[in-house]
Amino acid sequence: MANITFTSPAMKKDVTVYATAGDCHTLLAVAKEHKVPINFECENGECGSCPVRVTILANKRPMGMHFTEKEKTVLLLAGKLTRQQIEDAENNDIPPPWRLACQFIVRDEDILVEF
Question: For residues 81 and 75, is the Cβ–Cβ distance under 8 A?
């Protein structure tokens, strides 16, 4: 179970929603369900139109993050992530600062999502 706080200059105020971990919904699906205006186009990780900065708010070690190959490529080409950040995420379970909302699966930890 997680609280997700969305923040953006495009919104009048921050929105915090409750998400059930393990339901396999993407961050974009949760945002759409709660009418949070994250920009997107393809919804399958190829266009790169939905990058979000994700900050873990828990006081415990963050959970490892799974990257799809598409997401790694798109974020690397967009200059959002470095090869070192991708390697740290995959080998050391260090969450990267940027994700694609359409690829990020909500986990059992509170997060801040900036877009």
Answer: yes
Query: What are the Cα distances from residue 82, in Å, to 34, 73, 88, 89, 98?
Result: 31, 10, 10, 11, 10
Burial class (CB in 10 A: 0-12, 13-18, 19+), 55: middle
- What's the pTM value of the predicted model, to 2 decimals? 0.90
Domain residue extents for the chain:
2-114
On the question of pLDDT at 50 being above 90, the answer is yes
2-114: which CATH number, 3.20.20.70, 3.40.50.10860, 3.10.20.30, 3.30.360.10? 3.10.20.30
On whether the CB atoms of residues 95 and 52 are closer than 8 A, the answer is no
Give the pair of three-digit tokens for residue 65. Answer: 């993050």
